[in-house]
Amino acid sequence: MLAFPNPFADKTHFFFNLDAAIAGGHLRIMDLNGRTVRHFDLGGAGTLQDLLPAASSAAGGTTMAMNYVEWDGTDSAGDHVANGVYFYEVRITDASGQEIRKRDKVVVMR
User: Fold this and answer.
1) To the nearest whole percent, how much of the chain has pLDDT over 90?
2) Where do the structural domains in the chain lie, given as residue ranges?
3) Using one digit for the tens of pLDDT, what is the confidence trace for 35-82?
4) Are the beta carbons of 81 and 73 closer than 8 angstroms?
5) Does the predicted model carry a pTM greater than 0.85?
6) Does the 2-63+74-108 domain belong in CATH 2.60.40?
7) What is the pLDDT of residue 26?
8) What per-residue confidence (pLDDT) applies to 29?
9) Which of 15, 63, 93, 103 could form a disulfide with 57 if both were Cys (CB 3.0 to 4.6 A apart)?
10) CB 94 within 8 Å of CB 24
11) Which three-class secondary structure string do you get for the chain?
């Protein structure tokens, strides 16, 4: 998982690899107090963008090689968040039900 650019002013992309089918997941962006400022459902249409063509999956679900989610630096209400450090966390549940969780930080500097 990688946020690039980081720090950012206008928008950043959260890049990660999916090498197997997923059953669901989300990307959550939080302030330093742990409050969620933005939430992306990775199973939702149009949320995941793929850099490489999707591979077909016999078991169903989503299978892609390199994926990203774009964040424009706004909260759930559409307002720009303040400059500062934010945590991001991705949780993905694979087809077998195992959960994968990664957490890091991103910096907003306008």
Assistant:
1) 56
2) 2-63+74-108
3) 999 999 987 655 666 665 555 444 444 444 678 899 999 999 999 999
4) yes
5) no
6) yes
7) 94
8) 98
9) 63
10) no
11) CEEECCCECCCEEEEEECCCCEEEEEEEEECCCCCEEEEEECCCCCCCEECCCCCCCCCCCECCCEEEEEECCECCCCCECCCEEEEEEEEEEECCCCEEEEEEEEEECC
Higher-scoring residue by pLDDT: 68, 21: 68
Amino acid at 29: I
Joined tokens for residue 104: 């890091």
Distance separating alpha carbons of residues 103 and 110, to the nearest angstrom:
23
* CA 59/CA 36 separation, integer angstroms: 33
